[in-house]
Design goal:
The protein is of the alpha/beta class. The protein has 7 helices and 11 strands.
Length: 242
């Protein structure tokens, strides 16, 4: 789910979706919360007495929009109690509680659904008898690129390759929503008895996996050849997602 889809839901639909969230794990919900906080900040940060707006993992249990103010407690600014499905909490003259993220400006495309189908360049057609697929991902893997990436991975998984190798050598960044997609794709591949491999991580991307401890969950190799060497299959065509 992306932010445009989230914002289009009713309050009841959002509450139902939130009941399935595991906020201590990486997932698209963190990216949605950050985008919601960004829109809230754009709308209310100029309000008198508001000094800072954050997305907060509050007490490790809930994703909230945390607002720091310069008022003396218990005074509060006249702000909405909730915003796009997230509770808004005020913290007068104190740093908000929880794991904080400054949201930055909202994305100009975050409320716009993609009207065109996902586009991908293919270097060559995969050879079915090889028993594997190699997908090369590029750039930043974040909330706004997920529809394209999910569509491309779905094409590869539909063929049920023995191995699905994701080449991340051209990926410069991945956020929590991107990590969640990779976890989901690994489960899909495992469900039919296949294996998913991640290869060629840049140091900045590897650090993200290590901090989230996902380096212990995925099969990670330095390069494509290393992943393929783990089994007796012959390298063939590559699929590229942009």
């Amino acid at each position: 789910m992306n932010f445009a889809e989230w914002s289009a839901q009713s309050d009841a639909e959002r509450q139902s979706d939130q009941q399935r969230w595991y906020v201590l794990e990486p997932g698209y919900w963190h990216a949605i919360a950050i985008e919601a906080a960004a829109h809230f900040a754009a709308e209310f940060s100029s309000t008198r007495h508001v000094t800072q707006v954050f997305k907060s993992l509050y007490k490790g249990r809930e994703l909230i929009i945390a607002v720091q103010t310069d008022l003396k407690p218990p005074k509060q600014v006249a702000l909405p109690k909730s915003y796009l499905g997230f509770q808004v909490m005020q913290f007068p003259r104190q740093v908000p509680e929880g794991v904080l993220v400054e949201p930055g400006p909202p994305s100009s495309s975050s409320l716009t659904k993609r009207s065109q189908p996902p586009r991908a360049r293919r270097r060559a057609r995969a050879v079915a008898k090889s028993g594997h697929q190699i997908v090369v991902l590029e750039g930043e893997i974040d909330l706004h690129r997920l529809p394209d990436i999910e569509a491309e991975l779905s094409v590869a998984i539909k063929e049920k390759p023995q191995k699905l190798v994701l080449d991340l050598s051209k990926v410069s960044y991945i956020d929590s929503s991107g990590l969640a997609v990779l976890i989901n794709e690994m489960r899909k591949v495992g469900a039919y008895g296949g294996m998913l491999y991640l290869v060629g991580m840049q140091e900045s991307v590897r650090t993200i996996f290590e901090v989230s401890r996902l380096d212990q969950a995925f099969r990670i190799f330095p390069d494509v050849a290393g992943a393929l060497a783990a089994g007796k299959i012959d390298p063939s065509a590559h699929r590229t997602s942009t």
